[in-house]
Amino acid sequence: MFQEIIRKVIREDNMKNLILIAAPGAGKGTLSKDLLEKYPYVHISTGDLLREQVAKGDELGKKIHEMQMAGKLVSSEIVYKALEYKLSDPACDNGYILDGFPRNLEQAIEYDNILEKTGKDLGLVILINIEKNELIDRITGRYMCKDCGTIYNMNNPEMKPKVNGKCDKCNGELYQRSDDNLEAFETRYQTYLDSTEPLINFYKEKGVLHIVDGSKGHLYTLEQVEKLLK
Ligand code: AMP
């Protein structure tokens, strides 16, 4: 009882956990980066966790890579393992951003179980709304810094790097994700419509869903989210 009260007091001082739901290219990664610059969140991107496994080059990594290249979802069991390991980091107790998870109803239901097991809060669910045409522009022009992860867009004059191929912040080399091409995008987008969109109602019914407009630039998106954090 006493411990529960202490935990509640600590939790009230902490940041609200966030789940970001959006189609590929809508700006989950950029919003996460913007939030991390201002708040002590831990960023958990299941896509990044899976890419780390791919970089190891083992059998599991090869399997994951195949699914990612095809724009399909990786088996949930693999994702749960990576997620639970990451969530066991005590730094997550101060608040974390879930980027790319849950991706379907089955994962959302399992996530409720994980929350119950770990005593963590669901927090806020943020849906970033954006048109498909804009997503294609963003995906096909997206480049990232190998060293600091800053995201650029060659199709948007406001998001181009000052020097081609180099990061403005740390001079690191820029690269394009291998699944950021039109063909993989179409499958990823369809997967989003089929699997991820049903989450919208799931979280609406729980009363935790907030919709933000992702079409007016990343600072506007950040501003809307910050209002929700207060
Ligand atoms: P992202 O970096 O979020 O765009 O994810 C890139 C790819 O990683 C996706 O197209 C999926 O193949 C895989 N992936 C990321 N998160 C998940 C998840 N929660 N469940 C299954 N596959 C995932």
Question: Can you tag this structure with a few keywords?
Answer:
230 residues, alpha/beta, five-stranded parallel sheet, three-stranded antiparallel sheet, 10 helices, 50% helix, globular, binds adenosine monophosphate
Number of helical stretches of at least 4 residues: 10
Chain-averaged pLDDT: 92
- In percent, how much strand structure appears in the residues? 5-15%
Strand order of the largest sheet: 2-3-1-4-8
The H-and-E topology, N to C, reads as: HEHEHHHEHEHEEEHHEH
Question: Which structural class best describes the helix and strand composition?
Answer: alpha/beta
- Low-pLDDT stretches: 6-12
Question: What compounds sit in this structure?
Answer: adenosine monophosphate
Binned, the helix content reads 40-55%
Overall geometry:
globular
| Quaternary assembly | single chain
- Main sheet properties: 5 strands, parallel
Per DSSP E runs of 2 or more residues, the count of β-strands stands at 8
Q: End-to-end span in angstroms?
A: 28 Å
- Rounded to an integer in angstroms, the radius of gyration calculated over CA atoms is 18 Å
Describe what you observe in this structure:
- The chain is an alpha/beta fold.
- The protein contains 10 helices and 8 strands.
- The chain has a 5-stranded parallel sheet with strand order 2-3-1-4-8, with helices on both faces.
- The radius of gyration is 18 Å and the shape is globular.
- The site of adenosine monophosphate has 17 residues, from α3 and α4.
Quick overview of this protein structure:
It contains ten helices and eight strands. The chain is an alpha/beta fold and 230 residues long. The radius of gyration is 18 Å and the shape is globular.
